[in-house]
Every structure is written in C-alpha cells, then in structure tokens.
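Example 3.
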Amino acid sequence: MMNKSPRAKSFHGGLALNGHKLESTSGTLKTAAVPAQLILPLTQHAGRAAVPVVNAGDRVLGHQEIARPDGEVSCSLHAPTSATVLGVQRLPIPHPSGLMGDCLVLQPDGKNEFGNFLPAMDPDHLDLPSLLTRVSDAGIAGLGGATFPTATKLAGAAASTGITLVINGAECEPYITCDDMLMREQADQILLGAKIVLDALGAQRALVAIERDKLKALESMSAAIDRLGDPRFQLEKIFTIYPAGGERQLIQVLSGKEVPAGKLPIDIGYLCQNVATLAAIYRAVKDGHPLVSRITTVTGSGIAEPGNYLTMLGTPLGALAESAGGYSPKASRLIMGGPMMGIALPSDEVPVVKATNCMLVLQEDEVRATGDQMPCIRCGECEQACPSQLQPQELYWHIRGNDLAGADELNLSACIECGCCDFVCPSHIPLSQYYRFAKSQVRLLDARRVQSDIARQRFEDRKERLDSEAARRKQRLEEKRKKRASQEKAPKAIKGEIDAILARSKAKQTDADEGGETQ
Amino acid sequence: MKRFDTSGAPYLQPKNSVSQMMTRLLLSLAPAAAAYTWFFGPGLLLNILVASIVGILAEAAVLNLRKRPLRPYLGDGSVLVTAVLFAWCLPPATPWWITATGMIFAVVFAKHLYGGLGHNPFNPAMAGYVLVLISFPQEMTRWLPITTLASNGPDALQTVWATFTGQFGGGLQWDAVTMATPLDYVKTELARLTTMPEIKSHVMFGDFAGRGYEWVGNFIALGGAWMIYKNVIRWHIPVAVILGVLIPATLAYVVDPGSNGSPGLHLFSGATLLGAFYIATDPVSAATSPRGRLIYGLGVGVITFVVRKWGGYPDGIAFGVLLMNAAAPLIDHFTRPRVYGNEQ
C-alpha cells in the first residue's frame, strides 16, 4: 500500500527545522502518576464552556460525566478516575498571561473505580447520528491542538459527498512526538477509528499522511493497513517540512488544492482528523470510554527523563514533570505545545488539558532573547518562508503604522501564525506577535462595528418611530382643528353676539348710573 | 510550584541576524579585494580605510543626535558595508576629502535623514558615489593602470601619500600615471569612430575586458555565489541585473560588432558584477517579492547598458540602481504574489 517516493512538498515556504524528536522517542509509552488533585478547566476546547453537573462533595466514578456541553460548539468533561468533587474554583488555565478560568477540581480517592456510563457499540454497524451522539457524549475534541469539538466537525461533513478523510500523522513541530508514539503503539486503534468515520460518512478514501523520517510510525501504520485490508486506506509519505502538519498545508501536499479563503477543508471535500482523535473515537465507540486521558510528550533539556506519558486530563504540569524525573537544574521556560506555536506558561500549576500534546521545558540559553529587535531591512526572508505566501514585511509595516484596514487588505486573515517568518527574520522582529495582535484588533473592531451597527439601527428605528408618531400627532391635531373650525360659527355671528353682549352691558351701566343718581 | 518566564511564540533561537548577514557579505568580498590590491595596488584598501573611519564617526554622531543606542546600530555592520561598497566604486588613491564627502553624504543624508537602517529609499553607497561623481568629475576619472603595465606607476608609499594629500610626491604627476578604465576608453574611442577590434587591441584589454578587472570580476562573482549559497542574498537580483546588461549588449553586438562592446566586455567591465551581486541586492532599497526583484534587476541592468551606450558617463550601475530604487515601491505594489486560498 505504501507508495515508494514521498509526496513532493507543494506548499510555499516552510522550514526544515532540527526535530529534537529522539529525546522523547527512545523509550516506550509510560503512564504518568495520578496526581493529588485533578484540575479540569471547563473550557478546554474551542467554543463555549461546559456546564458542571456535579456538586462539591459528590463522589464520582471514573468515566462519569462531570460537565455537559453548552450549545452546539462545546464539549463535555468526564472524571478521569474515581474521585471526590472539591468544587468549581478559579485557577490558572493554559494562557500566557496566567489567565484564570473556572475549573472543576477533583480529589482522586486512589481506588480507580470506573463506571459503565456509555454502552459499548458495534463499530461495524453505526450510522452517522449515533456516531455523532457518541462522540459528543465522550467529550472528544481535536487532539492535534486546536481542540475543535469533533462531533461538530463531523456533523459539518454530513452533507458532503465524495469526502477524502485525511488521517493526520504529520507531527511537524520540533520536540513533539505524542502522535508518533501513538502510531507506533496503537496503529490499529487509529485505523479502526478512521474506519468508523469513513463508514458513517460513506467516504471513499482515507489518506494516512506521515513524514518520511518517522520510520517506525510508517512501518507500524503500514503493517496495520495491511492487517485491516481495507482498500480505501492509503499510506502517504510526505516530506518533513514545518508546517506540513497544518490542515491546509497537508491538504495542499496531498491534493495540490488550496482551501479557498473563508472556507473550510470540507468545502473542497477534505476532512482532516488527527490520529489521536481517531483513536479516541474508536475507544468511545468500541469500549464506551470517554476522553479522560491523552498522550503528552514531556521533553526538552529542562526535563530529566524525556518521554511520552499517558496522562490523565487535569494532571498539573508540575506533577507530570515529576513523573518524568523532575526538572533539570537549568529549566527556565515552560511551554505547552511546541517551540513554534506553543504557549509559554508562567507556572506549572496549570493542568494538562485536551490540547496538551507536549510539555516542553527549555533552558534560558536555548530560547530566543527578547528585546534585541532591529529595524526591518526588507530582506524578504519572511516572504520566502511564509506557507500562506503572504508578504509578512508589508503586513508588519501596516500594523506598525496602526493601519489595520491595510493589513486586512493584504489578507492578514490568511496568516496561520506558524512562526516561520519570525524564525528566519534577521532583525529578530516578533512578527507573529504583531499578527496575533492585529488579528485580535481586527476581531475587536469587527465586533464593535457589529455593535455600533446595531446601535445605529436602533437609533434610526427610534427616530423613525418618533418622527412617525410626531407626524401622526400633527395630523390628528390638524384634523381636530379642522373639525372644530367647521363646527364653530361663522365670524359674523360671533360679531353679532359680541355686539349684543356689549349692548347688554351698556344697558346695565346706564341702569346703574341712573340708580346712583337716585341715591 | 515552579515559576517560569514567558514570552511570545516562536521560542526557537533564530539562526540569522543582520550583523551576521553583513559580516558574511564583507567576508565574501575579501578575495576580490585581495585580487584588486594585487592588480592595482593598495589604493582600494586606503579608500576602504578612510570610508570606514568617516562612516563610523558619521554614524555615531547621527545616532547620538537621534538619541539611538550606539552599540546595536554600529554593531550591525551596515555602515561598514556601505563604506566598503562606496570605496570600491572610487578610483584607487582617491584623495581622502572626496571619500569623506561622499561617505558623510551617504550616511547622514541618504541613510539617517530618511530614518536610518531599513528606512532609506536609496542605496546610500550609490547616493554618495553619484554625489562625488558629479562634484569631482576630474578626480573620479583618475584610474590607476594595472601595476604590471605601469613601470612608472606609484609605489605603495606614494599611493598613501596621494590619498592623504592629493599628490603622489617625488615629482610623480597624476597625468603621467593615470589611465582610462576600459569602459571609459571604449566610450572615448568609439566617439572618435575607432572600431571595436582596434580598441580591443590596446594592451589594457585581456580576454573579455580590462586586464586585472576580469580577475577581480571573477572573485566578485564567486563571492556572490557564496552569498547566494549562504542565503545572504537571493539569486533573483544578480541574475536579472546580469541579464539586463547582457541581453541588450548581445543584441547590439550581433547587429553591429564594430561599434558595440562585446557582452563579455560589458559583463566584466565597470561595476556590472559588483552591482549585480553586492549593490543592487541591498534589500532595504530594492524590491522584495521574487517577481519584483526580477523586474527591478532587469531595470538596473538595462539602464546601465543605456547609460554606457548613449549616456554621458562610461558606467551606469549607480544610476540604474538609484532610478530603480525609486521604482521599487511601485514594483512591490504590482508584484505581490497570490495569497494562499485567494484569487489573484
């Protein structure tokens, strides 16, 4: 099934980076210790926060649902092990500013008791609605890092025909190896999960995309494809170039097609799923297991025993580091995710969430310095590296000049924030940060524009209402006056009346005068 | 609980820096500088010395006035690159005040009055060069011949003396030792209706162009190739400049070989190669997109040819570069690549 030569790289730019993958792949998959407390943020997926369904003091079993999704784009949460609920607390969540968020805090009781909350289903006879319900009930979100609720993504593909499923095993960021490890150790689960999705969607084709230097993963997945014997599956070896694992870049490598601006891959018939997501779907269907743990790569020179650890969601990163032999003396940077797109965290209290594919700990001298920025010399290296073929240096000028409209016109929104431009910039300008800032500003302005549009509409409506009321009132008054005028007597008659009154009062006067004289 | 410092992604240390690019550029010029000195004496090195000292002083003074930190901006090496390229354009043993005038103009006016590194619309070295070319026309044509041809030429000490006083001393007069450059000679002789074959029979010519200049050109091209290999520059501008000179030169030569210099003469004479690899490639003042750089380079090359053939000056790289500098923003505007997922 394996095609011999790798797919040509067909997207613009990108970087050949030092992988640093061996550190964490020399051993086998290990299991992280159960921590004293599990911290489960209610928002660990793209979309609305989940709503807790347990109360402080409750005892919960492993796999029990502890928070329900809120609305279409949301995700439920489950207890990773049997525990006592300590309640909802505001604690630091994975965010560079040390942002706090609502978290369910559980205290594991050490008994590791699990309940059967979701019945096992037959993977071979599963229609799409049942699959969607199960995926939603199991709290599965995209485990590649974006954590978009998987049920919502699959539902979005329901109306499409001729879908190609892309099984994303291209783990292009340096240091991260959790997907590599999963493909080595649980290849069958990935493919069976993919098969469930293929069958439910009636899709014809599944492309397993793996970089050509992941030899063990290629071998293991190739063998698993042979075992499965499903002709719809095809292994695609691709070049090792960052960011080939990005959804849009991977589709471009595999098909030569671009996803049009403002559209989703499914609009051109492609559905991407990360290998870990597919394995999670398989376990949810076959065993009725919700998503309560994931493989996290714990690596970097700041970690004593780098490796891949099967970790319960909610495990604080500090506890995970202890499972990996603790920190080395010079550990000074903590990054959740990879060194190109990850989030630097201020403390290791932050827990492992569904998006935590990697815990990277580096030494100070390995991390780029800040504050040594030089002026842009327009060398164009960023332009050469940009996978979206943007003109990063022009975007930078516009953003520096606070010209967000200009940046928007140059397709700022096509930036995938991969950091390639940053890495190659000889002036060490933090370009990605400029773009992230500008994008958030554009979003803010858009939101404000929507609000001000609503406000203007409201004002105009009110003015119109007041005007029409005033016009009506005026009309009514006019009618009233006309009516009164027609009812009233003619001016001559009035004059006659006045004359009569005058005459009468004169007569009275005369009478009085005469009377006075008589006194 | 352990606390950590934070910063924005990406976190990997960059492999490249402005000072590294500038250092590599200067290094790549060393073989050509050695060849130049071998053939024409130490005049170039003296020019470079004067230009560098004046350039650094001028840069420091302006940075001070602009209240900018000295260390990063002097350390980036950009002023040294300007100094070396400017000095390279001058005849060897140019009197120091001419070098200083051009260099001060380049650094103060062409670079810092526009905002300093990264903000100058015109190539500072070329702006400085054109200033002295127009202001000191006589001194700018006093080229020394290749040392092997000039038994009566100045020795090293006399060259130093000339650089700092304007005279060789020892009774040696400028008129006695200077010689036209090949391009200059071709231009004058063609105007006198001498044919190219006759012109090329002059002892100053080698295989394609001036003796000595050819070898310097070879080393410049080698240095340029190394810069492309090391990603200091990209290939687009050098290739386009060379094509911009060679295409019209070849056409003219094919049509009338008697009154047009050969493509080889154009390629190896004057500043064609230096301009293609080192001057037109100044990223700050050039176009940025790959297509834009091709158009920009072609423009530089064609203007150079036009000046050489019909203009009042023997060489035209400086004019080509400055004129195309002015056009670069427009070129960039019209050559933006199609963005992923968008229509053109």
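Chain B has two domains: 17-179, 194-329. The mean pLDDT of chain B is 90.
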